Amino acid sequence: MESKFKTLVQLLDFFKTDEDCRVYLEQQRWGGTPACPFCGVVNPYRTNRGFKCRDKECHKKFTVTVGTIYENSKIGLRTWFAAIYLCTSSKKGISSLQLSRQLGITQKSAWFLLHRVREMLKEKAPQMLANEVQIDETYVGGKERNKHASKKSKNTQGRNEDVKTPVFGIVETGGKVVVKVTEWVTKKYAKELIDQHVQKGSTMVTDGYAMYAFLKTKSEFQHVVVDHSKGEYARGGFHTNGIENFWSLLKRGIIGIFHQVSPQHLQRYCDEFASRYNSRHIKDNERFDLTLQGSDGRLKYQQLIGK
């Protein structure tokens, strides 16, 4: 069974009941071969309410939602599916207030639901980037000039970890992006990210920030510097437009949709934007299916708020 909807109305027509959603989730999660979430044994017994493991030592009962972000949720799967579609198809995201109004749930429930969707959108395996790769950093936080005089910090505009949260971004030109929130912008952390996510032999393109000078000493990469301070925005066909375009999208979403994001949750928002960016060449219903396939991994409220 494959989804063909192009709008939210068509999605709700496609999934008329929670049972329709459950059957579709079983297909997307298990591909027609149910597996026990506790021990991994396939082809369990089907019961009136779900499944029962065939393994004599396990023999546990379960449904398709066990071990997923939907587990023990009082929100119906039809509402979950509508929320997933709205989150993954909205270019700059959707706020919990807007989602609560559209789905008829409380703002607190919508906020928790959206964070669990972001848990689904997180990359499960490290992205490996190759060929021409751009790396840059940005700082997320309010502008000092917009703050009340009593809350302003002098000489902290721009690159400053004291009042803003640093974020590293690595993008393959024309390809995918990797985004990581960090506490400090350091050469050591930049090296670790590059070693983890960039294939040896790639061309690393950066701006003129002195920290990236270490790339010239790494024989595994060719380093190209595009020095914006000298009015240079491309060099021999190389540029940093890809990562800068992503920063623009991320910040427009934070400023225009969410208004404020705490450092505690910033990585989840970055994962959300990176997921939509990395799937920008496919249709909304295909992105919806991919999201359902990554439903594994439960996120509890106490985990989310750090208690």
Short account of what is shown:
The chain has 307 residues and is of the alpha/beta class. The chain has 10 helices and 8 strands.
SSE topology:
Elements: H1 8-14, H2 18-30, E1 45-46, E2 51-52, E3 61-62, H3 77-89, H4 96-103, H5 107-121, E4 132-140, E5 165-172, E6 177-181, H6 187-197, E7 203-206, E8 222-225, H7 241-258, H8 266-278, H9 284-293, H10 301-304
Parallel strand pairs: 4-7, 7-8
Antiparallel strand pairs: 1-2, 2-3, 4-5, 5-6
Helix pairs in contact: 2-9, 3-9, 4-5, 5-8
Structure description:
The chain has 307 residues and is α/β, with parallel strands linked by helices. The chain has helices spanning 8-14, 18-30, 77-89, 96-103, 107-121, 187-197, 241-258, 266-278, 284-293, 301-304; strands spanning 45-46, 51-52, 61-62, 132-140, 165-172, 177-181, 203-206, 222-225. It has a five-stranded mixed β-sheet with strand order 6-5-4-7-8, sandwiched between helices. A three-stranded antiparallel β-sheet has the order 1-2-3, with no helix packed on it. Helix 3 (77-89) crosses helix 9 (284-293) and helix 4 (96-103) crosses helix 5 (107-121). The longest helix has 18 residues, at 241-258. It is globular, with a radius of gyration of 22 Å. The model has no long low-confidence stretch (mean pLDDT 91).
Number of strands: 8
Class per helix and strand makeup: alpha/beta
How would you describe the oligomerization state of the chains in this entry?
Answer: single chain
What coarse outline follows from CA principal-axis ratios?
globular
Number of helical stretches of at least 4 residues = 10
- The radius of gyration over CA amounts to 22 Å
